Amino acid sequence: MGLLDKEFSDGNILIANVEDLLNWARLSSVWQLGFGLACCAIEMMATSMSHYDFDRFGVIPRNTPRQADAIIISGTVTLKMATRIKRLYEQMPDPKYIISMGSCSNCGGPYWEHGYHVLKGIDRVIPVDVYVPGCPPRPEALLEGLMKLQDKIRNESLRTKSA
Amino acid sequence: MKNAEEIFEILKRQFDDAIIGIDKDTPTEPIINVDPLQIHKVGAYLRETDELKFDSLMCLSGVDDANGTKVKDAEGYEFIQGGTLSVYYNLHSVELKHKITLKVSTPREDAKVESVENVWKTADWHEREAYDLVGIVFLNHPDLRRILMPYDWADGSHPLRKDYKNPEFYQGMKVPY
Ligand code: SF4
């Protein structure tokens, strides 16, 4: 993890630079908002279950946006829901991250042409960090998406705001 | 247990002018045509009479018949003028095990149908859906709001009309792809 490779100068003292430490803490405990939308949400739940075990990456569903670091947009975003998602996003404290999961939230998916009620891509409403393609993406793909997000967080800097 | 023609005869005897006819030429079951502004009393009778006992409204559907004339507006957009919108009622009697389908047709430009909400409670949300998506107004409905589309969706914009045109924006969000 980088941090543990650092030198031990005393039995209980660990030396690291603040940026690495904070980034390591953040990327190892990406708490997600417990929030699912459509068929993709089923796959997201499967990812949280024991077989794929999202928890081993520190992803725990939280019931309030005020305690969440990330939101996985897992499914079809209707125009009606988009206004709610925007509000949830605004209620989350910084730094906050968005994973857009599946074709629907990436670009409208199967509803891109005749879905009169579907928002054609969640990035029209909130900024997305990682896009996971698929309809639905397999749990492995979502895990890959999470690891991409962790890579992003690992290279963040305190001096420049990125979230 | 009664078949559609027997039920039609009973209704015809009871209501006469409210019952417009029976259409037997359908691929599925015969359909009884009813006057949209008298459907409530017909429904109440179907439910309460001992020989009929239609205690369950299985489905209520709003349909755009799209049987008017197609007209182009100034921008070349084609919409439908005239013709009808319909509502279908699929009824079932749990006790007597018979079924019937009713249909009411109402003019597209002034689509008004009596609500049967206080005959079968099921009709409440079904009628709201037919209002929301097809734009049929149910008279005497206690709470006729949109049910699926957002409450502030443009007035007069009903997505399952055959000549529906999607708006460009909703609350600042672009709608088309
Ligand atoms: S991307 Fe496919 S699986 Fe996911 S919500 Fe859309 S339709 Fe369902």
Walk me through this protein's architecture.
Chain A has helices at residues 18-27, 39-48, 79-91, 102-107, 139-154; strands at residues 8-10, 13-14, 32-33, 61-62, 70-74, 97-101, 130-132. With 163 residues, chain A is of the alpha/beta class. In chain A, helix 1 runs antiparallel to helix 5 (139-154) and helix 2 (39-48) crosses helix 5. Chain A is globular, with a radius of gyration of 17 Å. With 177 residues, chain B is an alpha+beta fold. Chain B has one domain: 2-Layer Sandwich (Beta Polymerase, domain 2), CATH 3.30.460. Chain A binds chain B through residues 79-80, 82-83, 107-108, 112-113, 116-117, 119-120, 124-125, and chain B through 148-150, 159, 164, 166, 170-171, 173-177. The complex binds iron/sulfur cluster.
Could you say which structural class the secondary elements and strand pairing of chain A correspond to? Answer: alpha/beta
Structural class designation of chain B: alpha+beta
So what's the CATH class of chain B?
Answer: Alpha Beta
Number of strands of chain A: 7
List the secondary-structure elements of chain A in sequence, H or E.
Answer: EEHEHEEHEHEH
The gyration radius over C-alpha positions of chain B equals 18 Å
What's this model, at a glance?
By secondary structure, chain A is of the alpha/beta class. In chain A, 34% of the residues lie in helices and 13% in strands. Iron/sulfur cluster (SF4) binds next to helix 2 and helix 4 of chain A.
Write the layout of secondary structure elements.
The complex is a heterodimer of chains A (163) and B (177).
Chain A: E1 8-10, E2 13-14, H1 18-27, E3 32-33, H2 39-48, E4 61-62, E5 70-74, H3 79-91, E6 97-101, H4 102-107, E7 130-132, H5 139-154
Parallel strand pairs in A: 3-4, 5-6, 6-7
Antiparallel strand pairs in A: 1-2
Chain B: H1 4-15, E1 19-23, E2 31-34, H2 39-48, E3 56-64, E4 69-72, E5 78-81, E6 84-92, E7 99-107, E8 112-114, H3 123-134, E9 137-139, E10 169-170, E11 173-174
Parallel strand pairs in B: 2-7, 8-9
Antiparallel strand pairs in B: 1-2, 3-6, 4-5, 6-7, 10-11
Bound molecules: iron/sulfur cluster (SF4).
Residues 38-40, 75-76, 102-104, 109-110, 135-136 of chain A line the site of iron/sulfur cluster.
